[in-house]
Amino acid sequence: MAIPAIPNYDIPQPPQRRAAAWELDPQRAALLVHDMQNYFIAAYDPGHAPIKPVIANIARLLEAAREAGVPVFYSAQPPRQHPLQRGLLSEVWGQGMQTEEEAGIITALAPQPGDEVITKWRYSAFERTGLAQAMSFAGRDQLIITGVYGHMGCQVSAGDAFMKDIQPFMVSDAIADFSAGEHQQALEWVAKRCGVVLDAAAACEAVSAAAVS
């Protein structure tokens, strides 16, 4: 199954509820840019919501994180995955991306020196990757989650973070999804079950506190 064209939609507001009273601390946090690869982003209309503001908000967060010394991680699936590596994903999503161009991070959010790109094999950015170990080495136990797709990899990564005692912070207007309903569902689930949902303005303000303190 190829990824279908995704219709435009307005990004939902973050839920008021919180699973926990955690506050985002730039001395403890890392930023995840989840699967912002050409293959996945091609499904969106680039000039409209949700993807246009999402890309702008991730860019703002990247700038704030780099200035504040917050570690930046990208997840990216490789092209031409061997069937034994791709496993059941082939039965649900087909063969996936096939070229280096498709696998590349979009130009607007290109990794910079000092960022780390994690090769990703499943929905979660933690499954079969070194993300948890890299965060531990960096002394980080909070994860700011951005990228695509909200109710899939972003939500599952948030749940995995929680189960690894890493506090997940999902940025409501820095993730995109298949629909407004699925986007809202992802925000609600994380807010109720495992983390904190906040918007990009609040996340940038919290991250930037390290740069001015």
From TrEMBL:
<protein>
    <submittedName>
        <fullName>2,3-dihydro-2,3-dihydroxybenzoate synthetase</fullName>
    </submittedName>
</protein>
<keyword id="KW-0378">Hydrolase</keyword>
<dbReference type="GO" id="GO:0008908">
    <property type="term" value="F:isochorismatase activity"/>
</dbReference>
<dbReference type="InterPro" id="IPR036380">
    <property type="entry name" value="Isochorismatase-like_sf"/>
</dbReference>
<dbReference type="InterPro" id="IPR016291">
    <property type="entry name" value="Isochorismatase"/>
</dbReference>
<dbReference type="InterPro" id="IPR050272">
    <property type="entry name" value="Isochorismatase-like_hydrls"/>
</dbReference>
<feature type="domain" description="Isochorismatase-like">
    <location>
        <begin position="29"/>
        <end position="201"/>
    </location>
</feature>
<dbReference type="InterPro" id="IPR000868">
    <property type="entry name" value="Isochorismatase-like_dom"/>
</dbReference>
<dbReference type="Pfam" id="PF00857">
    <property type="entry name" value="Isochorismatase"/>
</dbReference>
